[in-house]
């Protein structure tokens, strides 16, 4: 496994490395860890990596690695650069035949995501997008149960992602400048929807298997002189009369990482919360509430494969991320794997289209805007 | 105290009587309990009431009671008839000078509510509307803390009211006929928003003191051949950039009575859930979560007056309703009482306007619709 | 219904009156409310009671009421005097043929309780002891499910009752003097076990139907110059190898009213907490946790009869107490009622024996001490 | 880092390897992974380890590794063999100068633990005992707050560890034979207290800093023909009048891994539950309940160092274990580390003495038994 970015004190680099270690399927061999080559080498040395496979940039990485014999060559590359570089770097890597594990957001625009999707198909590589929350066992159990019809035909699907971290800076124009997510040049088209709303959207499509047809959204910048959304709601319309909602906020003061989802069907409901990830609530008409927990034999294959410990031993967010790495490892080795074992470029395309439709809807006066596919 | 309706096996009659007993401020003297006079008398006899003050209809009730000397006359009348009769009966009672305690919905239309508001002012009577949930001590504490600025300036207010009870009937046209709430002739303009959405709306305006300027709503009947909404979302716009949301559903399968509210301000947040009414969550930036409970000295006057037991002794929904009766009793006796001690005709007017705006917005293509005042 | 004590500002008097009102089965007619007769009459006047049936003392109450014709006479009398008077007053009332509803503790000693039990049998009256917590619907559902064998053969039963209210006074000898419960002359043999430990013990025997054979206890006065226990643990031994525990504390600082019970059987477990009384947790080997709530059709008859509202409308501690009154009303009217509908003098005898055995065990060096029956 | 045991499909081996990876401070170099050398080599090959440093047994491991130059030699060795081998293997490793990271139980007897403690001191090595639960950030925060006097002087400390996994086998003599923990030859003196009770005991001494003076215990084998305890309670006596309790059960049917602790002091209380490890409840007299969560600036240094993610991103049991590895790494490198950063041989000695005292107390008729130090 190689890594582009993620060196030195990169927080997200650590997350990905830990996730890769947990499953014991990947070994970090080298990469282009830093734009400062000296710092990259210091970093590699600290991790006791081979200095010859620490490269100054992605071009050198690709040239040198592809020159190696196939069995020595790095197979999969993790892209954890700043957001706006995800697209060009992923593109180069795909075209050079590497499998790619890419941080979110996959690209800057939906068109770029579509382009990557075509390239992935053309070059026959595995592309994993790290929508971390889909790796939790109870999220996978939710997906399994919905697919098995346990809650019947879906009639409502809601997801929420509330955080408060923008609140301490949004009220002060000077402080805002310290936050790159509030700068359109660095963050792209959207702050709140692009960063967290898209996770909530992904959770809905991931767990339900539904395809959103159109959205009507109302985004809020809180202040006129703040160009990007920090809060917003998107009404969702699926097939027929089935409705849903994504609401996301970064000014939900003092909320930490409150992502949750509830799906209601004709036979019952399933509810899950990210901050208490090891509980899945199954509501059934006329029955007591059922609370499912990981590690139990009543869970399906997908949740079971995503659990390492016996019941009652809480696994956390690194374990969730590690499950995506495990899924991708199976795909890379050409083994069979369950659909949904890891998010793919398909999830990336859907997410970027959701973000663009949401922005358009809000800008155009809160009108229904299709998400074409 | 008198009662119109509520006799025999009326469930809502029991609720109101218990609420009136709990505070030991009201004594049930008589009423027009039933359209079947014989049954009304049997009922009165079971409660050991004076048979002479059990009347066959509201007209006789008013004629006979107003003929009594002032100190013997029934002072306050509880209206717990079928919904469509609330308006005409309340109107008669107000005009005859009785104080009125009225079940929700106050009227059939916003115009009727405005008319009652004018009559209440003209006749100088006390009019209490039983939005039951405003009586919970922790809801009152929430109102107090927001008014005191504990969470700063509000930037988002969300309320949700999810139930699942329509689900077992909505999928079967025959079964639907057994539910009067799904019949426009009996239920009026709206099922879901009129019955429960309006409670969520009231909770927001009650606790925050904000006035909603406009709504954009998306209501769902689930089936084309079902004329009334059973699910819906309303985006709210308050002053400036402050947003909120009411979402309500009666097809949130297997939900029982899941009313909850969360208000986010510049300094923190307050969250409350009806099914666990004795916990108020206060989130503050940079601090541990604070969980407030009734009966403690740290609560304000309004919550304290609404609590009878020491901490840790859970009071419930009858106690909440009883607090509205206690507030109205103070008003009737001409004593000082805290603003918000009981919902008034003002809440009725706001609620009916919300319902009508929500219906109009959805019908007109999900457009912003003002709630004039 | 009559009442001995409970007048003026008596807190416990209010609780009992509200409980009696809620079921609409009792009407307060008169009583000996206060040792200060003038204050008793003022109190009666405030409640609009007949002044002629407000008596200066229990002797007059008994003489005058028994002189009335049977159909006019007060049938049941509530004893809510200071603790040390429960025994003599209950005794007089039983001997005069009144049904008695008595606050806990039933007597000062186990011997007195046994004496009352014999008198109750002899005079064929109904004696209800208000162990309030047995009235909660989910406690009754727990009893029902255990009786039906849902959790198999019991192998462990634990109850805990933790409060912190003694903490602010126990550390200061002067402050202690303000608390009658810490004064052996007024409180009797025990503070913590007598006041709250006995509730926990009663919950175990009530829900499981088991009979405790012996106890080994370790009581704590915290300071040598404090004569009464404020904290303690009692190990319980039932038949065979089945064990359990009661732990109680009044120095569990900042705990409010944390009574909880967990019973483990060969097939599963049931867990309940008083501060969240509307949730019953049913753990089953190999299955998701089941959470039961009141008002649902899956509950048994006993829980169902103890619930007035539809699911999701939380009832509280007054409603729990009211269920005891309803059970006693059925017994008084001679109607059939479910076993366990209200605690009887039997519960009083068991409780007093538990308290005495617990005190003896601790005093005698933490040795096993039988609870004979 | 080397490893003794833990090869092939060893569950506990995986746990330790993951924990060592997470902190990026250890690299697995070699070991004696398996009694079957061929299988050991296959295992090493799968992990891409150097085959030359995969040894057939601990003697070869020690001989060969100590023959290497100091900078090449394995520094720390993880002991994850079957329980009865912990003592002899740890002893050999200590005597050979390796740092040791050892699974629990540290030895078979208290005397052996004392012997190891002396050897650790003599050989100046780092000895870490993996009492996993002490690595959770909120457990460390609890320790910090108690040490800082936040809850005042302790007056009660309770811990509980309930599991249900023995239940499906204990009732059937044949099935019992499949469980090595129920076999005195393999499990040692105790099943329940030795396996889980000791964790609860360790949590109390770890978080409070108190030293238990004596215990009175009541152990339960459930059946006469079952030689080892599967359930038990131990009353604890600390200095002065301070009491506490450890209760543990493996027949608490359907409980998963319900370890929890509550400590009450003169100023407040702290409560924590292993299955929801990211919440610490701080109860204070006269204040709302405070709920602390990891990653927040209000936490102390010890909790902060044990957290990698921002607030709201739940870390789990591997992260907890990883924190022990990080603490030991600092000690091994000779860096400063906070007291309590990892459990040491001291915790092992205390734990073994607790187990032996508990067994003796119960066997001798539930009498107070000192835990000498």
Number of H/I helices of chain A? 13
Order of helices and strands of chain A: EHEHHEHEHEHEHHHHEEEEEEEHHHE
Percentage of helical residues of chain A? 25-40%
Query: How would you describe the shape of chain A?
Result: globular
The whole-number mean of residue pLDDT values of chain A reads 96
Report the span from N to C terminus of chain A.
Answer: 33 Å
Q: What is the name of the CATH architecture of the largest domain in chain A? A: 2-Layer Sandwich
Assembly of the depicted chains? homotetramer
- C-alpha Rg of chain A (nearest Å): 21 Å
Structure description:
Four copies of one chain form a homotetramer. Chain A is built from 13 helices and 14 strands. With 373 residues, chain A is an alpha/beta fold. The first copy, chain A, has two domains: 2-129, NAD(P)-binding Rossmann-like Domain (Rossmann fold), CATH 3.40.50; 136-310 and 345-363, Dihydrodipicolinate Reductase, domain 2 (2-Layer Sandwich). In chain A, helix 1 (11-22) crosses helix 12 and helix 6 (137-147) crosses helix 10. The longest helix of chain A is centred in the C-terminal third of the chain and has 19 residues, at 345-363. In chain A, 60% of the residues are buried. The model of chain A has no long low-confidence stretch (mean pLDDT 96).
